[in-house]
User: Which sequence fits this backbone?
């Protein structure tokens, strides 16, 4: 799984967890503040069951290589979630550098049409935003116009 895939996977997973009212099993409800421990045996059993369910969702939706990297005996869903996040966030700087290079050198000549060229620039800009290096609107326009092929240069002049 690449960083962009991780970001998408994590967002979809959070939506799924929230819709099943178990988001607190992977993300503390308030920053730095964990849920209070269950106070009865029934609550403890329910919490453990729900946590095991969320943990199984995590394990069943990642690659075998990632699973082998993060799996540990008696882990909670939050511990597994945090290990995954750490794997991908540790690579953010190098990922940002690679994405910046690709964004800066992308030109329409590498694509069959304007639409796919624009979609690729948008995808790269979204990925850069996900690693903490957002692309400004003006930079996006400059890159888009600068990478147009000769037949589209007139449109580029109008956009500028």
Assistant:
């Amino acid at each position: 799984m690449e960083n962009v895939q991780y970001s998408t996977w994590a967002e979809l997973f959070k939506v799924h967890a929230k819709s099943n009212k178990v988001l607190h099993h992977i993300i503390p409800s308030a920053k730095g503040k964990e849920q209070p421990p269950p106070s009865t045996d029934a609550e403890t059993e329910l919490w453990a069951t729900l946590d095991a369910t969320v943990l199984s969702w995590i394990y069943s939706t990642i690659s075998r290589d990632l699973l082998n990297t993060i799996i540990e005996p008696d882990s909670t869903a939050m511990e597994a979630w945090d290990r995954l996040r750490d794997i991908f966030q540790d690579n953010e700087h190098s990922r940002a550098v690679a994405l910046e290079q690709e964004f800066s050198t992308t030109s329409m000549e590498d694509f069959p049409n304007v639409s796919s060229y624009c979609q690729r620039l948008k995808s790269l800009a979204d990925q850069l935003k996900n690693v903490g290096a957002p692309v400004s609107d003006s930079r996006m326009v400059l890159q888009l116009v600068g990478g147009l092929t000769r037949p589209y240069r007139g449109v580029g002049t109008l956009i500028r």
User: Anything to note?
Assistant: Residues 39 and 138 are 55 Å apart (CA to CA). Helices lie at 3-19, 41-60, 64-70, 77-89, 92-105, 114-130, 137-146, 153-159.
